[in-house]
Amino acid sequence: MKILVINCGSSSIKADVREHATGAFVARMDIERIGQPNATLRFDGEDSTTDLGQVDHEQALKKTIDLLLKRLDDPGAIAGVGHRVVHGGARFTHPVRITSEVEEAIDELASLAPLHNPANLAGIRAARKLLPDVDHVAVFDTAFHATLPRRARTYALPYEMANDPGLRRFGFHGISHAYVAQRAAEFLDADVRDLRLITCHLGNGASLCAVEFGRSIETSMGLTPLEGLVMGTRTGDIDPGLLIHLMREHGYTADKLDELLNRESGLAGLSGVGNDLRDIEARAADGDDHCRLAIQVFAHRVRKYIGAYAAIMGGVDAIVFAGGIGENSALMRHRIAQRLDFLGARLDEDRNRELQLASLQPVQMFSTPHSRTRLLVARTDESRAIAEAVSKLILKSDELTLDQRPIPVAVSARHIHLTQEAVETLFGPGYQLTPRNDLSQPGQFAAEETVKVVGPKNEFPAVRILGPTRSLNQLEISRTDEFTLGIDAPVRASGDVANSPGILLVGPAGQLKLEQGVICAWRHIHMTPDDAEHFGVKDRDVVEVAVASGDRDLVFGDVLVRVSEKYRLEMHIDTDEGNAANLGRGATGTLISTEGRAQLRRRNTRYDAVNPAAE
Ligand code: ADP
Question: Which residues bind substrate (predicted)?
Fold first, then answer.
C-alpha cells in the first residue's frame, strides 16, 4: 500500500509517493510556476521537464496524479493522501481526516497564513475530487507547537489583545522539528520523552525549537514565519521600532514592509548575491565582506537562540541540525557550534567537516566522544513524516485478533512513594507507615499518613503515601496538578525519575527537599505473564486501549504494558484521564476502582524501546 503526500504551495506542487509500511520513497513529482504561462513538471531524478502551459492548481494536480498513477505498478495501491497544511491555528493540534467541515476551517484560517493556506486548500479540494475513494488527511506545520506554554506563546500586548486567539505565537516547521527530534532520540537509543533537545531547522526558512521531553515548549517563529532566525530572504527578529521609523520617516506602507522583510532581506539582502548559502560561502572565501557579514549575522542569531533555549530547559541533551543548511553546510555548523563547551557541547571539527549524510545513516554525530551534550545532524523528511501520520491515522496496523477480555480500570489520584529514610525525616526517627487499606496490586497499601507537597505556585496539604517504602522517592501527579503546583513533570513509567523535577515535602517532624522524583505516571496496564500471553503482548509493549464508560467512551494510545507474576490485571490511569472518560468522578483516594472496562485494540510497536530504567 502506498501513501500520496501533497505539498501544495502558492506557485508549486510537490507530490511524493511513499510506501506505507516503511516510509520508503517510491516516486516524486515537482511542478513549478503554477499560474504563470510556462508551468513545468518534472519527475524526480529526471533532467527533462514537461511544459504544462498555463495551469491552475486543480489542472496541475490532475496532471500530476494522472501521471503518477500511470507510473505506479498498481495504481489502486494508493491507500491514503496526506496534505501539508501550514496553519492549523489553535484548533488543529493533530493530523485530522479531512471532511468538508475541516476544509472550511482551513479556509477560515487563511487570514493567518494568506500565502499558504489558500494554496494548501486548493490542493486538498482538487485531490479529493480526483481521488474520492480514499481518506485524505491534513497534517499541520503548527500542530507540534500546540504545547507551547502560555508564557511562550503570548506577546506582551495589552491584555485583551494578548488573549486574542489570532494574535499569538504559533510556530512553524513543526512537522520537521517533531520528525528530527524523534530520529535523534532513536539515534541516541533513548525515548524522546526523556530528552531535552534543541532542533535547528535551517533551510530557506529557518527556525529553532526547544523540545522538552517530547513536547515543543519554545520555538523561534511566531504569529507568522517571519519571527526569529535570519532566513534566506527574511529578516527574522528585528526591532519593531524600526518598522515604525520606516513608516514615519520613509513612507513605507504595509505592502512595502512585507516585501522588504519577507523577500528582500535575510541572507539575500545582506549578501547581495541571492539566498543560496553555497554562493555566499564561496564569495566569503574570496573575501567578499557582504557575504562574510551575512554568514556572521546568521550564525550569531542561531547561537543566541541555542543559549536561550538551553536556559529555558535548564540544560540540553542534544542539539540537532537539519534542513538544507543544517544538513550540508559544515561551515555554518562550525560557526554555530563552536565554543559551546560551557553547555557541555564539544565540537569535533574533523567529524563536522567530513560528515556526509547517507540514506542509510540519516542521523550522524559531530561532537567529541565525551561531549555531554551531543551535536547531531539529522536529515529531515517532511513528506515521510506526513506519510507516517497518515498511516497512523487511517490504517489499522498490528490489529490484535485475540479474544477481547475486558480489563478493569482504576483511577489513581495524586500519591507519593517514599524511602524509609524519607519517612523518618518527615515523621521522626524509626517511624513506620500505618496501613490504612490494601490496594489491588498484591502487597501494596495506602497508608494513614499524608505529606504536604509545596510547589512554586501552590501546595497540596495532604498527599496520600503508598506503602511499603521503596528505594526511590516518587510523587505521581496529574497534568492538572502540575499546573496547580507550577511545575512541569515528564510522563514516565514508575521508577524512572532521572531528570525529573524536585519538590518540597513537609511532614509533622521535618521537611525534605526532593532533588527529583515528580512524574506524571505513564498510563499502564498491570498483568501477569498468563494475561500477557492471552492478550498477545509483552512487557513494555505500548498498546492502544478503548475504555467504555457509558457516556464518554475514549480510546487511549500510548498505554504501557507491565508484566509480572506479582501483578493483578488492571489498567491504571490518573484523575485527568479518568475524568476525560467520565470514570471515577470525584475520586479522592488512590486507585479507586471504577465501572469502566478497557479493551486492548492494538499493539503499537513504535515506542517499543521503553526506557530500560523503568522499574
Ligand atoms: P526549504 O526551506 O526551501 O525547504 P532547504 O531546506 O532545501 O530549503 O534549504 C535550502 C538552502 O540550503 C539553500 O538555499 C542553500 O542555501 C542551503 N544549502 C543546500 N546545500 C548546501 C551546501 N552544500 N552548503 C551550504 N548551503 C547549502
Answer: 84
Looking at residue 12, the DSSP 8-state letter turns out to be -
Instruction: Report the alpha-carbon distance of residue 599 to residue 559 in Å, rounded.
Output: 12
Residue 468 φ/ψ, nearest 5 degrees: -70, 170
Which pLDDT score, from 0 to 100, does residue 602 have? 62
Measured between alpha carbons, how far is 110 from 97 in angstroms, rounded to an integer? 19
Task: Tell me whether domains 174-385 and 523-614 share a fold.
Answer: no
Q: Kindly provide the residue ranges of all beta strands, DSSP E only, lying in 455-515, ordered along the sequence.
A: 459-467, 474-476, 491-492, 503-506, 511-514
Which residues, including other chains, have CB under 8 Å from residue 347's CB and lie 6 or more apart? 334, 337, 338, 340, 366, 367, 368, 375
With a 6 A CB cut-off, is 324 part of the ligand 1 pocket?
yes
In 3D space, the residue among 568, 571, 560, 573 whose CA is nearest the CA of residue 527 turns out to be 568
Question: Does 204 contact ligand 1 (Cβ within 6 A)?
Answer: yes
Ramachandran assignment for 394, one of left (phi > 0), alpha (psi -120 to 50 degrees), beta (any other): alpha
Can you identify the CATH homologous superfamily of domain 2-140? Answer: ATPase, nucleotide binding domain (3.30.420.40)
User: Which of 208, 233, 270, 278 has most ligand 1 atoms within 8 Å of CB, for mutation?
Assistant: 278
Q: Does domain 174-385 fall into CATH 3.30.420.40?
A: yes
The domain spans of the chain are: 2-140, 174-385, 414-521, 523-614
Pairing assessment for the beta strands 570-574 and 524-527 based on DSSP bridges:
antiparallel
Q: How far is CA 407 from CA 87, 241, 404, 574, 601, in A?
A: 40, 61, 9, 16, 12
CA nearest to 502, candidates 589, 422, 587: 422
Task: Count CA atoms within 13 Å of residue 454 on its CB side.
Answer: 8
Q: Report how far ligand 1's centroid is from the alpha carbon of 230 (Å).
A: 13
Which is nearest to 134 in space by CA: 388, 394, 424?
394
Contact at 8 Å (CB) between 50 and 66?
no
Give one DSSP letter per residue of 76-112, joined into a string: GGEEEEEEEES--TTT--S-EE--HHHHHHHHHGGGT
**Segment-wise mean pLDDT, segments of 10 residues, the chain, 615 residues:** 91 91 86 90 85 89 86 80 94 88 93 87 94 94 94 97 93 97 96 95 97 96 96 97 98 96 96 97 98 98 98 97 97 97 96 88 95 97 94 60 64 93 96 91 91 96 95 95 94 90 96 95 91 82 77 81 90 89 56 59 49 39
pLDDT reported for residue 397: 40
CA distance 582 to 58: 45
| CB of 336 closer than 8 Å to CB of 306 | yes
Ligand 1, atom 19, residue with closest C-alpha: 324
Q: Which CATH architecture has domain 523-614?
A: Beta Barrel (2.40)
How many angstroms separate the alpha carbon of residue 322 from the centre of ligand 1?
10
Is 205 known to sit in a ligand binding site?
A: yes
